[in-house]
Amino acid sequence: MNEFTQVLNVAGSKGTSFKGPSLIWIYPIGPGMGSRFFLNQPMIVLGREAGCDIVLDHESISRRHVRIDKEKSGPLTASDLSSTNGSFVNDKPANSTPLNNGDYLRVGACLFRFLGEGNVEADYHEVIYNLTILDPLTGCGNKRYFHETLEKEVARSNRYKRPLSLVIADLDHFKKVNDSMGHLTGDATLKSFALLARNCIRSEEVLCRFGGEEFAIICPETTMENALVVAERIRTRLAVYTMEHGGNKFSQTASFGVASMIGNPPFTADQLIQAADQKLYLAKNSGRNKTMG
Length: 293
Fold this sequence. Notes:
Elements: E1 5-6, E2 22-27, E3 36-38, E4 43-47, E5 54-55, E6 66-70, E7 76-80, E8 87-89, E9 92-93, E10 97-98, E11 104-107, E12 110-115, H1 120-133, H2 143-160, E13 164-171, H3 174-181, H4 183-198, E14 206-209, E15 214-220, H5 224-239, E16 242-245, E17 248-251, E18 254-261, H6 269-285, E19 291-292
Parallel strand pairs: 4-5, 18-19
Antiparallel strand pairs: 1-5, 2-3, 2-12, 4-6, 6-7, 7-10, 8-9, 8-11, 11-12, 13-15, 13-18, 14-15, 16-17
């Protein structure tokens, strides 16, 4: 149920030369990711129903989910069609909401990037590139980007004998969120954590989604003492933060493992990851909602 198809009478089928506005599939990850849907009609309906202009075969999508309208003058607009899981433009409910270049359109659990009338080809290739290095749900670096960045920072630490720290965070009992409140709430929880963590770190520190509910922060030029401060700042702010989605209000905590090395003797990325992971294991097995380093 993760693939989707597009009705052939919508531009975007093979061989089209249409250069106007379009939607790019960016989440969930699967065979359809990166597909491009051109919006070349005055009104386009997205949904699971075969009669829709864009057919999305996904369990979170209603039969007729969202409508995109194009007036003779003015921007395209998105309007939810009383769907079960809602339609949102940049996380705000879609109700004749204008679509601007770069906006995100969320349809149920499916996420699209809207490209306007500008340099569509350049924007499209930029989006495709970002799909290779960014986690589409949270906007953090993905696991590939994490490993590439960490390898570079480890090489720099070894060469110049400068400190490098790694923080690994794991959301406590995250499976219960998915099981009791659904995967849409689980996705919202991951996005909220990523935003909170991003607001707690410096611009030179790199936040990545390391696994399902695991995140990693690469901290160049950072000692163990300072990396523990970073982890504790995120942990304590999360512990008092109220998550809210779909009428549910709940709290969420996380456990943190911190490791630091300085390139003397030389070390590898795997050694740093293993050291941080061992500390995370201790944090989780000593009651969770803790930082260990």
